[in-house]
């Protein structure tokens, strides 16, 4: 890779060029000492005058604020090549002033900023402000309109150069032989170090790598990190280094000196060097890159303008080799077939990548897709300009411009345009380290909050294409990588945080991602293209994780399947170039080094992907290698291959795991305990807890949490279900006693305090109950729980520790009648008709039912159940069959007495028989009037549903609140305290019940922590949430049916588990099948 240069000598300039800058990828603006502003074209090297500066204004620096305009003097015109142009031009002067010009070439601001010459004037990366640095030793920050914000640096010595950090939170400047980094946060510490033996003449701060490059009078250039650690020091040149600049994408570095131009890698080593011996240029000043990182421009001490563009960039992939031979030409070679093709383009090449048998080339206006087998017939995508990033995957490739991210197939079809909150403003800040394309997933690190990764699913019709899941890290993330191989269930994502710790998580485990730490002091990572093997680079070594995904939950397995190798023989500043198949490519100081991973392990991964367990077992028996056995053990454990896991763990000498597997095999097959222990074996702790909880194995779940030392969760479960609270507290005491520590958990302390004072609290509650008899409402139309709250839909799902599957069936069918008719059909017919319903559940028709789709279906079923219940009751109450119910009919049917003389005849209702019945009738009358929306004194079928199930309708909630306060609020203060909450039930229960009720009162209902329930807090107590019930039912069904743990149910998984969804009997789906379009309307 090298520069091809062109020197403009025969220009019409009368004075030398002082400063210059790119306004877009085609145009350069320069200022000369005659106060003129010129625009140059990089295509034909012609110039035109566009503005004149004030008399006596000699420019010392120039910088564009890039926006959607075009350029000075051409308002409203589109930028050449469709590129974004400059909006505001900042020019600094030798008299201490700076001016801001708009795109119409008019001076908007003329500000006196310093007492001496301004040496640097730069817009901030976000365009919100600017900095100026002068020879007076002062650095100031100004608003975009030229108003002074702050003076951040005041020194006695002269400042030579200053630059913003990539995120505009700090700045770097050089003063004498020193370089200093000044954070802009209040009370932050200045980092300063001696960089060169002589004066530091120039510096640059990379946008992507955060490295700082400096050049000085000692004829050397150096690379530093932000803490002042030296990363690279060049050999001394013949003359001083006068200019240095990182390209916008951070991969390259341009160095200028006397008659010298050097192209370097960002770590410092040199790609090429140009010596201008025949065409003397003098020293190069103000080297600037174009926004697409393919061209440079520089002024020279002889007054010439130098242009340069990159050629001979080379990429290799398997049998293909490609190299750029010109601005519009690429030579593609097939090394195996020994063929060569020259590809000519009508426009300048700005970005290109090679991989997976395809060459993707982005020019100014088009994207060309070449298949290695059809080189002469490329697929062309029009309208894509300013492409900054091209990333290739096995099925798709990514294009990133300044506005959006585009995912295409290799046939040229747009597959996805992913968006997330704030994406429009963050797209210009994306780089290759914060975006990654996997087999079926896309991961993008958020720029505004760098602890978040957005994960998009690329499978056709997947819901996460529009609503991505988010991964949250505790520390800022610097690099994210998604694996490039495997089945949809075996997709993994790794990321490196600011502490250089490496974490891994399963891509399809969202939205609750479980992250595992598998490495430390990792600088960069890369997945193999053909297997789920990961390589990571350290400072002086590299590590290979042969089974990072399946083994991540077990530190022992990770240790057995990870190998670390020394890289001292490669040299310093090593970079990871490629990981193709079994070959890893490193680069150090320009030299390429290739190493291979263990071939048997690569074969084992491919056998695992194809589910060829017998062949995998034979391979391990043949090789007799601990690495292979440990890898097979992790893979087999994930797929529940217990027999193979046992042999593999035994061969890798993991005796404790062999014993544990024998214990799992002793449990009843497919029992909740068996599934939970198997999840624990694979490190899925959260999943094991969910299985136990949703199968109502409460004591087992509490003991499981105690085994895992999850004390707060154990206490939460015990308090919620009112059991084993004393066991949790006792085990906690033993744990602290063994560690000789005091209890420091506030919640645990509070529960222990409540346990100690239970006698006193019961006495108070009994005394309160003596003064007021606590009553509960039980009507013939509304089922209420013991404390007066409406019964939730799943009230009879679990009773007496026994699971009743009727609720599951009704939640899927939406009808009690249909659930009772199961025995009319054979199991085969049940499966056949269930398949019809599954298609309707799968709203996006992607072949899977995810949690959102199943929850929507269950909520629809709840609505159908309420309507069915109301319909049956309506027929009973509508005594005259006129399709409406009057208050008299309701009184007669509900509170009238049966005739003793004639069976089936109700006597007329006359008056309440006691005080309790009078209160019930009063409550029902209020509810009746509220449900009578048209105020005609009678209820039709739709109004009757609101009367029968008022808790299902928001407009009925005020009446429920009014009746609850009348019944519970004994002191009539408009709110409910704890004594009113428990009423006279306290005297009939033990201390555990009282502790549970106190915790429920404070944690679940008293949201504002004022010691009382009022308004919505009371409603959250007495009105059950169908949304929560539906979510619990979804979790229960997933725990029972999601055998492959991919957090979605395939159609076949649901049909295979038909006894869970619709029962083991046959069922009648006639109503659904005859009116199948009814489901589309409701969903």
Automatic annotation (TrEMBL):
The keyword Translocase does not apply. One of its GO terms (molecular function) is calcium ion binding. The lineage of its organism: Eukaryota, Metazoa, Ecdysozoa, Arthropoda, Hexapoda. Pfam families: Beta-prop_IFT80_2nd, EF-hand_5, EF-hand_7, TPR_IFT80_172, WD40. WD repeats lie at residues 111-143, 193-225. It comes from the Eukaryota. PANTHER family: OUTER SEGMENT 5. Probable molecular chaperone assisting protein biosynthesis and transport in the endoplasmic reticulum. Required for the proper biosynthesis and transport of pulmonary surfactant-associated protein A/SP-A, pulmonary surfactant-associated protein D/SP-D and the lipid transporter ABCA3. By regulating both the proper expression and the degradation through the endoplasmic reticulum-associated protein degradation pathway of these proteins plays a crucial role in pulmonary surfactant homeostasis. Has an anti-fibrotic activity by negatively regulating the secretion of type I and type III collagens. Its main location: other. This is Reticulocalbin-3. Residues 829-864, 919-954, 956-991, 1003-1028 form the EF-hand domain.
